[in-house]
Amino acid sequence: MVNNISKYIILIAIVIEAVVFAVLAPQFLTVDNLINVALSIAITGILAVGMTFVILTGGIDLSIGSVLAVAGIVAAICAKSFGGIGVLLGIAAAIAVGMTTGLINGLMVSRFNVPPFVVTLAILTIARGLSFIIAERYAGSTSVSDLPPAFAFLGREKVFGLPVPVILMLAVFVVGWFLLQHTRFGRYVYAIGGNSEASFLAGVNVKSVTTWVYVLNGFLVGLAGVTLASRLGAGLANAGMQYELDVIAAVVVGGTSLSGGRGSIVLTFFGAVFIGILNNGLNLAGIDPYLQKIALGGVILIAVLADQLTKR
Amino acid sequence: MKTILILLTAILITALSGCEQRSVNTNSGSNSASAATKKIGVTLLTREHQFYKDLEAGLKEEATKRGYELIVQSGDMDLAKQQSQIENFIVQKVAAIVVCPADTKGIAPAIEKANAANIPVFTADISASGGKVVSHIASDNVQGGKIAAEYIAGLLKDGGEVGIIGQPEVQSTIDREKGFKEEMAKHASIKVVATLNGGGVRDRATKAADDMLQGNPNLKAIFAINDDSALGALASAETRGVKDLIIVGYDATPEAVTKIQSGSMLKADVAQDPKLIGSKTIETIAKHLGGESVQAVVAIPVKVVDK
């Protein structure tokens, strides 16, 4: 019931903002622009699915933005060094970078009881340092560019009229939704976030499930990293700055609770759509960039407030 | 309440950590230098931009030539960090301090402290308002915006719509935008139809350019306030299949210059000379310490580079 109310709120909010922007900006309600909005939330969306899992267990991952940068650079270097096969190698390497980092995060949280904030904050800093060192060593600058044309597929091509990043995002949402709603793993994720102690007593392997959640999140960070690098045509040391905030915002605005156990992938999808439309609409309507920041912050506050009120 | 608290803490911690990335004291190990060696303390805005790497190279080259010992630290765009770095310089009794302020106004109290300790302060690239600064060494950003506008106006003989991808948080880029708009106001047939915030980084600039091109199908040209923004606009235009856009960037980084020479839609760049800013800064300090009078503003010229 509580979930239904939250869902209702975010859907109504999306409809209201769509109507407002349709009036303010004539280009808003066109197929082209809606695809444009979808593309603009593709990376955030992929990351938000992983973050939803993490937040549902009561955790948080602040490291995603900088790990994404490392993954993108590693992918770009592979593509550049090994030609055609290097593109596939690059995708694999980016995902490996993400999963390894996820494993470290997960083990620190689950086996050593380090608070997720602290672990992922440390990894954030380490990964950002690494991204600059690797780019500097390899390319002598902050970007690894001039990539083979095949590398552009993930980020720049279209299939059936839809940009590949959008298709990836939709696939990730569907798989994430299935995992969470229709598998034992998904039920455990909710259980751990709801009451970790009780889950343990009920026989859930809390440590193992928690670790896997961070690894899964890392997989998606790697995927997002290589997709972004492909789209930008370069692996960038400063990519993904403060993405963790955008992604946490999408999850929270959707209505997933930061204290864990409550929320869903569908809600996160709506949250990402809502923020995507907001950014796009404000830009199309030519709203002053300073005012845009205020609007975005205000919306996040309202969303968290609504979350609190419906919980009572 | 708990949720809000957690969110706030998350934002705070992330914001702080974002500024915490690197602080390496490159030269502090060389205390074995002779006592006569004069130390110059430098707090850079950041080390995470090519521009500042080049500026640092210019500082070091000239300092080595003149036999100064440099203590270079990165402020990581964090005002508080820069303040404490300046305080440390004062304790170390450096001969001069160079600041590239993270905040033009906020840096003033720290400069006043250095003034009180009779240590001359110089600003490079970004100016300070407040405190006594001997000399400010920087590119003329308003001028840079103007010559970008002139270049675009020269290509758009029949006029048309142009857009700006800016970064309204930083004074130097605000000045570029201002110069661009001032110059464009002289061309009646050209209209600035959109100014969006690309944050000065490529991923965000790409998104801003997507929206700009979406909302303004007749857009003829984009002025981007730095090269990450310009390359972001280029990535956006290429992905969208746009063919005839004119993009003019700023800084002439090697990657941007390659794109300009390859005949892409990135047609030209306003080139600053960060290395020259660095070496002129040391030169100005040397003059001042040698008792010569120096100008309050040392303007480093900018120019347009194209194919």
Features:
heterodimer; A: 312 residues; mainly alpha; ABC transporter involved in vitamin B12 uptake, BtuC; two-stranded antiparallel ribbon; two-stranded antiparallel sheet; 4 strands; 77% helix; 3% strand; globular; B: 307 residues; alpha/beta; Rossmann fold; 2 domains; 6-stranded parallel β-sheet; 6-stranded mixed β-sheet; 12 strands; elongated
Describe the structure in your own words.
The complex is a heterodimer of chains A (312) and B (307). By secondary structure, chain A is mainly alpha-helical. Chain A has a single domain (2-311), classed as ABC transporter involved in vitamin B12 uptake, BtuC (Orthogonal Bundle), CATH 1.10.3470. In chain A, helix 8 packs across helix 10. Helices cover 77% and strands 3% of the residues of chain A. Chain A has helices spanning 2-24, 31-40, 42-56, 64-110, 116-139, 153-156, 164-182, 184-194, 196-201, 206-232, 243-254, 265-284, 289-311, and strands spanning 143-144, 158-159, 162-163, 235-236. The two termini of chain A are 12 Å apart. The longest helix of chain A is centred in the first third of the chain and has 47 residues, at 64-110. Chain A has 13 helices and 4 strands. Chain B has 2 domains: 36-133 and 274-301, Rossmann fold (3-Layer(aba) Sandwich), CATH 3.40.50; 141-271, Response regulator (Rossmann fold), CATH 3.40.50. Chain B is elongated and about 60 Å long. Helix content of chain B is 44%, strand content 21%. In chain B, strand 3 (96-99), helix 4 and strand 4 form a beta-alpha-beta unit. In chain B, helix 3 packs parallel to helix 4 (108-116). The model of chain B is unreliable at 16-35 (pLDDT under 50). In chain B, strands 2-1-3-4-5-11 form a 6-stranded parallel sheet, sandwiched between helices. A 6-stranded mixed sheet of chain B has the order 7-6-8-9-10-12, sandwiched between helices. Chain B contains 10 helices and 12 strands. By secondary structure, chain B is α/β, with parallel strands linked by helices. The chains are: A mainly alpha (312), B alpha/beta (307). The interface between A and B is large, with 56 and 48 residues.
